[in-house]
Amino acid sequence: MKQRIVTGVIAAVIFIAFLVIGHLPFELFTCVMAIIAYYELIAMAKIKQNSIQAILGALAVILVVLNAEVQKVFSYDLVTLFIALALILLIVTVFSRNTFSYDKASFVLFSALYIGFSFMLLSQVRVEQSLLLLLFILVVIWSTDSGAYFIGRQWGKHKLAPHISPNKTIEGMIGGIISALIISGIFQLVANFDDPYTPFKLIVMTLLIAIFGPIGDLAESALKRHYDVKDSGKLLPGHGGVLDRVDSWIFVLPVLYLFQLI
User: Fold this and answer.
1) What pLDDT, on the 0 to 100 scale, is given for residue 238?
2) Could you give the 3-state DSSP secondary structure of residue 90?
3) Which among 129, 155, 181 is the end of a domain?
4) Distance between CA 233 and CA 135 in Å, rounded?
5) Is 88 helix (H, G, I), strand (E, B) or coil?
């Protein structure tokens, strides 16, 4: 427990420092996090990190996360980028002598798209929108997790997804939603949001975060269970890997994007 607390505090201090600084330092820090999360993900599928296919996926992640900066040097379209990556990965399957299958090619493509796009949104919200908005999103995610944990431990009886995560309960998820709404309300009272982030829109965002955040966590749990992996990595002692810490964020941010809220 002591190791978990120490690691959590150090990681939080580093993250908050870059979050406050913003601009290019935060973009680069986000890119480093994305690369680590990407390699943790493909390692689950036992794809060699130094293979050409893994490196191509990592390059795609960098080009997506640092899209705003790279576009200043040369222009490219993200859809075209992933079409090119898909075709190149298929070419690799042809010449790999059956060591790199279609399944693994699909996994690399999915990993690069999911990780790259999610972390790009994390960076863009901070750099192109506001620190306040990103703090709101993160605080609501953390309050959802905390509420679900404490309510679930105290009153949880009905399992939410026992085949994936036996500790999560329906009562815990409801507690997480209530906790998120309370913290969201307090946050709005002390913060000054500009248009178009009206109280109604922020409540909608809160509900989406509180519902889809736990689903993102369960999605990663399902992936780890499929590949028989306990933690995504060992970078954060007591916590696992980067992916274990950001599984809710990287699911919530695309959801908010799809609803045109970020």
Assistant:
1) 66
2) helix
3) 129
4) 26
5) helix
